[in-house]
């Protein structure tokens, strides 16, 4: 079990189709699936381009895709897996000692066959690097709320706080819409790791961690800090030449803390003074009710609900609305963040706690 140090959590690999052997007898992957009605008439026919055994939390994800590189199209298999693939060793993260085990697991799933060399030389994309941080100075809930309160308001990267009984955390940006804005939109997430294991990953936890004598996670307050590096150009923004899975495995992540430091210092303002909650005006209350109602109606986040409200009041098709829409968005975002603060007592102390905890890892 690896705590307070960076490790590889998950990744995707782009492997030339010619470098793998696809199982022609697999019941789903790249097979034609025909749907018929009760009268036997064909409703639809399609070839399944992706597959994952969802009943197995350790299973890899297989997808046929086309990779465009310098104008040249290449048929590839997009292979994705997380550190759950190493089962009882999940909490140490993936490292070079796991390669033979990974090859065996993937081949034994019966979807494709691949050799060790081609796996290591595969092109790397969408790598999640994480740190499981033990929290000593506060509860995980206070830590996450303080991170939210310290967050800067920025278009497209404002914080999203999720605070459900089985899932508490905060995220910045969207891992699927970073584009080339590697320095300003890198996806970052913090969440209560114990809660996640006991709820979302309970099947996996019960099977591989619950009775593992080498895993002592229930007795600790642990926040997982997780970030996504999209591709080789994103790695290059940290002056790291990482293109393949082999390159990643050869990287000493303990010397690459900037991967976390840069987005943390971009999204959080350690000098920000946290004000205690003041009384809400009737307009504030109405605005918050509207945000909540639209978020629930559209099954989206509160941040997206604010965008919907701003679009309805100041439609984007009218260029004259650009500035007033921006001002209204900022006003509603500030109101939303301020409304969250009433749940956090001794805010100034909690603010110092989160800065202190991150400083222990040299992240701030």
Please characterize this protein's 3D structure.
The protein is an alpha+beta fold and 364 residues long. The protein is 33% helix and 23% strand. It has 12 helices and 13 strands. It has a 9-stranded antiparallel beta sheet with strand order 5-6-7-1-9-13-12-11-10. β6 and β7 form a beta hairpin. α3 packs across α12, α9 crosses α10 and α10 runs antiparallel to α11. About 4% of the residues have low confidence.
How many helix segments?
Answer: 12
Biggest pleated-sheet summary: 9 strands, antiparallel
Order of helices and strands: EEEEEEEHEHEHEEEHHEHHHHHHH
| Arrangement of strands in the largest sheet | 5-6-7-1-9-13-12-11-10
Number of strands: 13
* Low-pLDDT runs: 270-278, 343-347
Helix fraction bin: 25-40%
Shape: globular
Strand content bin: 15-25%
Q: What is the average per-residue confidence, as pLDDT, rounded to a whole number?
A: 87
N- to C-terminal distance: 24 Å
* Helix-and-strand structural type: alpha+beta
Query: What is the CA-based Rg, rounded?
Result: 23 Å
Observed structural traits:
two-stranded antiparallel sheet; 33% helix; single chain; 364 residues; alpha+beta; 23% strand; globular; nine-stranded antiparallel beta sheet
